[in-house]
Design goal:
This protein is α+β, with helices and mostly antiparallel strands. The protein has one domain. It is built from four helices and five strands. The chain has a five-stranded antiparallel β-sheet with strand order 2-1-3-4-5, covered by helices on one side. β3 and β4 (64-71) form a beta hairpin. The protein is elongated and about 70 Å long. It starts with a helix and ends in a 7-residue tail after the last helix.
Length: 112
Amino acid sequence: MDPFRQRAVAILETAQMGSVSDMTVLFGGDGALRLIMGQGSSLAGGHSAEAESSTYHLTRRGNRIQVTGSSGTRTCQLEAEAAPRPRALLLNDQPLYQVIPAMAALPSPAVG
């Protein structure tokens, strides 16, 4: 599979596991990667033939994910269902941090 299509597949597979709803991914001819988040990011508005070698636009509507790619005169469009997300992961009741009182956390200064 060629790199243009490999990138589209990789973006789609990653999006299936995540929660991004709208994003444009730009791969520069120099290897640079730019991510533009949010609605309104479009292939036409974000794509400059001189600066970017390929552009991928990701959209999520309900449980469907679509990736549309453009590179020069080439285009591709992939679509898949989002992976089911277990409710336990979304509503995790375990704290992701621990609060330590400031004074108890610091060792006493050495006198000497």
